[in-house]
């Protein structure tokens, strides 16, 4: 079963309804675009672009899938070039063409190709944006090298939501836990060192590494409100427990946090998340 067939199949199975909705795989392509455009992830993505590339006008979106990010970036006024190897009208380039026509966007071009073979002229784009695609690279160093090559000097490579593993055992666990890998077998992941070394060898300077709990870009569909609520509840639990041991000293700022570390709090330990996602901002030197 390929990726296109996998998505068609899970749309028909009620047990995957939440996954279809949360991953923007609905058959209604415009609904996916609308929901992604209203998401905390997209809002945070725009903040990153505003912070690290405030004057950017041109964006190359690599591995664009069904176009939820490409369309929304174009609607925000960026000139967007799309690279997506899958021709599918469900989750690939034809889906994006359908959306481009529906939104009547003339600031977008769509190409069917792999990132390792994009072939654009060097120094063409202000931003290269890659959402959930770098970890699919069949040659990671070539993938990143091509991204760097087509960036203008000073331009940024923004890669978001890429799976990170610690070692081969961790990767095996991630693949076993992934809900769709058993259907199409196309999942993959790399270590943080492999991602960062590929960027360094491509002449990119790492500006920011966002680990799983650093940004809603990574931890969606968990919301920031939920994360902060969990943290507050946990701190109150530790403070209450610590008061029974040391009395008023438990109210000293930081005491409850340190107590949580001492007893090995693991609620926010990303090691408990198979294939936790990271994002990177790097700049062409």
Description:
This protein has 13 helices and 7 strands. The protein has helices spanning 3-11, 17-22, 29-37, 40-52, 68-75, 93-103, 140-149, 168-177, 181-184, 192-201, 216-219, 224-246, 255-262, and strands spanning 58-62, 79-83, 108-111, 125-131, 151-163, 204-210, 277-284. Strands 3-2-1-4-5-7-6 form a 7-stranded mixed beta sheet, with helices on both faces. Helix 3 packs across helix 5, helix 5 packs parallel to helix 6 and helix 12 packs across helix 13. The longest helix has 23 residues, at 224-246. The radius of gyration is 21 Å and the shape is globular.
**Structural class, judged by helices and strands?**
alpha/beta
Mean pLDDT: 92
Helix content: 40-55%
Strand order of the largest sheet: 3-2-1-4-5-7-6
- The H-and-E topology, N to C, reads as HHHHEHEHEEHEHHHEHHHE
Count of helices? 13
Terminal Cα span: 42 Å
How would a textbook summarize the main sheet?
7 strands, mixed
Radius of gyration: 21 Å
**Gross morphology:** globular
Low-confidence stretches: none
The strand count comes to 7
Approximately how much beta-strand content do the residues carry?
15-25%
């Amino acid at each position: 079963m390929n990726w296109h067939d996998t998505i068609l199949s899970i749309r028909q199975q009620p047990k995957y309804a939440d996954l279809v909705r949360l991953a923007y795989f609905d058959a209604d392509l415009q609904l996916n675009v609308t929901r992604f455009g209203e998401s905390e992830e997209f809002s945070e993505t725009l903040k990153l672009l505003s912070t690290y590339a405030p004057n950017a006008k041109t964006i190359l979106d690599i591995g664009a899938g069904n176009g939820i990010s490409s369309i929304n970036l174009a609607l925000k006024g960026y000139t967007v070039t799309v690279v997506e190897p899958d021709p599918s009208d469900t989750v690939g380039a034809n889906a994006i063409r359908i959306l481009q026509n529906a939104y009547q966007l003339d600031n977008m071009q769509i190409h069917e190709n792999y990132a390792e073979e994009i072939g654009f002229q060097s120094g063409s784009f202000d931003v290269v944006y890659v959402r959930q695609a770098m970890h699919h690279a069949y040659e990671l160093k070539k993938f990143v090298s091509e991204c760097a090559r087509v960036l203008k000097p000073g331009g940024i490579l923004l890669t978001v939501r890429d799976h990170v593993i610690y070692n081969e055992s961790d990767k095996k666990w991630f693949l076993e836990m992934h809900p769709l890998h058993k259907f199409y077998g196309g999942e993959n992941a790399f270590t943080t060192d492999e991602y960062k070394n590929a960027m360094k060898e491509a002449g990119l300077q790492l500006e920011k590494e966002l680990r799983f709990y650093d940004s809603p870009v990574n931890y969606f569909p968990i919301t920031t409100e939920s994360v902060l609520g969990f943290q507050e509840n946990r701190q109150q639990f530790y403070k209450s427990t610590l008061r029974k041991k040391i009395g008023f000293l438990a109210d000293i700022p930081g005491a409850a946090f340190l107590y949580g570390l001492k007893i090995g709090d693991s609620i926010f330990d990303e090691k408990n998340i198979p294939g936790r996602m990271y994002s990177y901002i790097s700049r062409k030197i």
